[in-house]
Amino acid sequence: MADRSWIVFFATFFSLIGVLNASAGDSDPEYRACVGQCEKTGCVADKCFQHCRFSSDGVPVDGPWYMQEPLYLRWKQWDCQSDCRYHCMVNREKEREIAGYKPVKYHGKWPFKRVFGLQEPASVAFSALNLAVQFHGWVSFFILLYYKLPLRQNKKTYYEYTGLWHIYGLLSMNSWFWSAFFHSRDVDLTESLDYSSAVALLGYTLILAIIRTFNVRDEATRVMVSAPLIAFVTTHILYLNFYQFDYGWNMKVCIVMGVAQLLLWAVWAGITRHPSRWKLWVVVLGGGLAMLLEIYDFPPYWEYLDAHALWHASTIPLSYLWWSFIRDDAEYRTMNLVKKAK
């Protein structure tokens, strides 16, 4: 489906290729020398940073880091090392551009220009828009079920998958929220939250794909299907966060879960007579084509817009169409059940 669920395994696969290999930029001797000098002096060329003040033995002159750099200042101004890396990268890229060279990656990332302290402003903006689309889709789904479609005598909905899609909406919004944070500031904490929320969403959407495509309505059967997958995803997230953040293993897990649910939705769209199956086909095929942006990686245009940011942009209309399919499915199932009840 068209957000950080079944397509996240593609992003994981292609983005981690750059992480697992050393980047050309941070291997550049001139860049490394600049960073080393900056961390000693607190300056890059004529630009100096007040939170990079050290004594001769390397101890901050203003006392411990928690007295010198409050958390809100660290988020707004970054810390000494990240500022040194950023400004050395900017200066080095200017030198490379004058010499006629193309941009290269630094520490696994293209050289982006900050906007209000945001590390990847375009990806942040598109992640925020995806969050807005997920919120709109979830609210419109809620309004359709409880205010437009018939309800049972006990005020519950006829649609058997109501609760499952509510959980999906919450997990999707949570995932895009942390995606925006991660792209605004790439540190260990935001990376962990982004990867963990994406894996949780991916695992849940696999469960949801199995239950919906096989039309599992019995609660006991749903528990039997969900329990082992929930246990596995939970263990995997704990392993990443508290034992070893293994990018390669996480990539394999994401690929398996992503391929499994993609195949389920594709086969179901091919054999079902659902009136809105065309929307599902558009989402599946559109999501696959959007992944070409992850394959064709290129430096950011105007220092802001790269392939990954455009991939985030492409998921916005696909996510909107996906929620449209969910609403159609709810209406289709509800009207069929109402007819049977009469």
UniProtKB/TrEMBL annotation:
It is found in: Endomembrane system; Golgi apparatus membrane. InterPro entries: Per1-like. This is Post-GPI attachment to proteins factor 3. It is a multi-pass membrane protein. Pfam families: Per1. Its main location: membrane. GO terms for molecular function: hydrolase activity, acting on ester bonds. The keyword Transmembrane applies. GO terms for biological process: GPI anchor biosynthetic process. Keywords: Golgi apparatus, GPI-anchor biosynthesis, Membrane, Signal, Transmembrane, Transmembrane helix. It comes from the Eukaryota. Belongs to the PGAP3 family. GO terms for cellular component: endoplasmic reticulum membrane; Golgi membrane. The chain crosses the membrane at residues 124-146, 158-181, 193-211, 223-243, 249-271, 278-296, 308-326. Residues 1-22 form the signal peptide. The keyword Nucleotide-binding does not apply.
